[in-house]
Recover the amino acids of this structure.
């Protein structure tokens, strides 16, 4: 099973990613460009660049995934 994971560079996301890999799931993580190094290097982790606030950047990114886990949160808001 392949899971599409958002928020994988955050505190909770890193733990969920670890748990998914431990249970032998394939995981596709969407990350902002430049944040790829924050993801565990593992052959079961596929990183794709994008921004979940930009619908165009999601085009085709979920293809082949069986489930989505959305962990994006806003830590700080700026006016």
């Amino acid at each position: 099973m392949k899971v599409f994971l958002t928020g994988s560079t955050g505190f909770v996301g890193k733990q969920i990613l670890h748990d998914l890999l431990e249970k032998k799931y394939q995981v596709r993580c969407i990350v902002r460009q430049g944040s790829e190094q924050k993801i565990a290097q593992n052959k079961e982790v596929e990183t794709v660049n994008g921004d979940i606030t930009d619908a165009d950047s999601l085009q085709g990114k979920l293809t082949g995934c069986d489930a989505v886990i959305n962990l994006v949160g806003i830590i700080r808001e700026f006016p």
Summary: The CA atoms of residues 9 and 38 lie 6 Å apart.
